């Protein structure tokens, strides 16, 4: 919001430069984007009077003007504006002047006729076309008669006023008004504001309730008030009001519409105006819109409404989008004689959703979304009536039609001086602390160390003790607060066990060739329900920005597959990614907050290696990814055996190439190939993936790491090849070997698997290397031979193997 420095000084005795004032506001209240003047960069622009205006001899649209600028001679200026005429007082850019966009004006010839300067429109001297009144939009600007010839134009157009552009945060909606900013500056500089209050002169012969009535849904309009004025004369607003508006980036329209915008700027209370004679049945309703109800705004935008929108309507049609903008049907025009001023408070939630839904963001919606002063609605409404009466001598009908109202009362918050000083690190006395509250306009009652602070409704952002701490700190001055070191016992900074494991996880997977990826936590409902490791209800956003980001994820893999698709679509065929992140589960559909669970997942598509002169890369397979997962889990020192069991529980995974992962009987995740149908939907090449419950891994007991010395005695290796049924797993064979291998069996390694030619049907050949070693003595062959006989005998008995 752009705040006029001259407007502020009407209510406060400010004696500081505008740039210093802006810096003070930024240090104390809200951010200030800039402090500027419209005249910055302009020079040699004066008021001139067109003495004569004749048609250009060589042009149909140009005029040759003789212009008085209070110099010895008249200036001859060629002008193409359609509204130039003799007797007008206009903006003159003298030779050598600078106008908008740093354009320099020189003496020139226009179709053979000398031109010593330029007659300018408002947009040509730096005003944005969006704020130029339509009367002057396609021509030059004409001053009122009291403008003095030869004087600089800046004061007449408000261009010498400093404009402080406030970037108001959502919690400080009170500063979206001149009065709110005045109250804030009065507290900062310990000044007393001199505010004016409207004095309404009502016509006792006219009663507003005879001409209009209102019916509202109090849930969507807790405050709703109307006032009626008759015999209004539609005309341009006085120049001082137009200046106030265009300096605030608002286009002046007429004396009725301009008043509503002026009141909004001054009080922060949006005002809507209707033509009384266009209201059917003399009744206004505030209601929910009907589904697919079609309306057209006064700006010509056509809008299709939903049943969650709110409108102001008469018996036949909507006349306004409540809290946003007016609609065609009851708008004020040049023929308007009788008007209704409307002021109220609408549901900030519905206004915000409606503005976002239809992309209609206005000054009114901005204020309703951040809140308005419930205690100031009447005053703003009366002020609008009083100004209109002053402008056009319109009749203000007696009484205010009130459809709903709230008794806005101050909020009381108790606080102690001891706690103020302890929290802020200050040493304030009771008079100093209470004086700060009084400067803010708060009431204070003191009882020993305790203060009962009464906050007026205009500061609706203050409710609790912490809010008062902030107010004390702001007004006291952050720069004035003492610097102190943190107190308390010192401790050695270190990582928690969880942090250590997460960092180790990153290191292990990165060392394995995977790259860390970060995916969105929000996804579609369909993707959120993929790769589910447990049953859960969806967590949906009430107002998602897009349908692609509407649901909290319940897996990491769908996001990683999106990343794979993104890379492969751009020619990167070999993709290996992992992600550490949270998934969100709900055990009950009515559960408000989902449970956040840490997961870790990885995907590999293509190959992990590249072709070299002596090595040909191969596409990744199940066992390569299993090796990476094995290495990761082994490095975590989990206290328990790692088991893989084939599963078809996941419809998104290949049913013959997927396994659940268990540690000591506890399921911690799954691994396998992405189902070809799912891969086609993601438009990716064959991909293998895993996802683990990292929270469970963190909580599982860990083995203590111990170091064994390297044996100085040699080891003995023996090979054994067996013929066994195909349904017997490697795990079962290894388990049997380890059980009968004895104390010196150090390692069992499967080095060959064959089920081709010369192997009986239903059988497979498996070959193992068994390594024996004694840590304390030289191992004898007899000991190894005895162990091998036990192993062979046990394998024959348990699995009916044939030793080859």
TrEMBL record:
- What keywords were assigned to this record? Aminoacyl-tRNA synthetase, ATP-binding, Cytoplasm, Ligase, Magnesium, Metal-binding, Nucleotide-binding, Protein biosynthesis, RNA-binding, tRNA-binding
Gene Ontology terms for molecular function: ATP binding; catalytic activity, acting on a protein; magnesium ion binding; phenylalanine-tRNA ligase activity; transferase activity; tRNA binding
Sequence ranges assigned to domain B5 in this UniProt record: 408-483
Query: Which Gene3D superfamilies does the UniProt entry name for this protein?
Result: 3.30.56.10, Bira Bifunctional Protein, Domain 2, Ferrodoxin-fold anticodon-binding domain, Nucleic acid-binding proteins, Phenylalanyl-trna Synthetase, Chain B, domain 3
What InterPro entries does the database record attribute to this sequence? aa-tRNA-synth_II/BPL/LPL, B3/B4_tRNA-bd, DNA-bd_dom_put_sf, Fdx_antiC-bd, Fdx_antiC-bd_sf, NA-bd_OB-fold, Phe-tRNA-ligase_IIc_bsu, Phe-tRNA-ligase_IIc_bsu_bact
Q: Does Zinc count among this protein's keywords? A: no
Which major enzyme category is it? ligase
Describe cofactor binding as the record notes it.
Binds 2 magnesium ions per tetramer.
Question: Which GO biological process categories is it annotated with?
Answer: phenylalanyl-tRNA aminoacylation
Specify the TRNA-binding domain's residue ranges.
39-154
Superkingdom field: Bacteria
Indicate yes or no for the key word ATP-binding: yes
Q: What residue ranges carry the coiled-coil annotation?
A: none
Q: Which residues form the FDX-ACB domain?
A: 711-804
Q: Where does Mg(2+) bind?
A: 461, 467, 470-471
Q: Per the record, GO CC terms?
A: phenylalanine-tRNA ligase complex
> Pfam families, per this entry?
B3_4, B5, FDX-ACB, tRNA_bind, tRNA_synthFbeta
CDD domains per UniProt: PheRS_beta_core, tRNA_bind_bactPheRS
Q: Please list the cofactors this protein needs.
A: Mg(2+)
Catalytic activity as recorded in UniProt = tRNA(Phe) + L-phenylalanine + ATP = L-phenylalanyl-tRNA(Phe) + AMP + diphosphate + H(+)
**Listed NCBIfam families:** pheT_bact, YtpR
State how it assembles. Answer: Tetramer of two alpha and two beta subunits.
Q: Which family does it belong to?
A: Belongs to the phenylalanyl-tRNA synthetase beta subunit family. Type 1 subfamily.
Protein's name according to its UniProt entry: Phenylalanine--tRNA ligase beta subunit
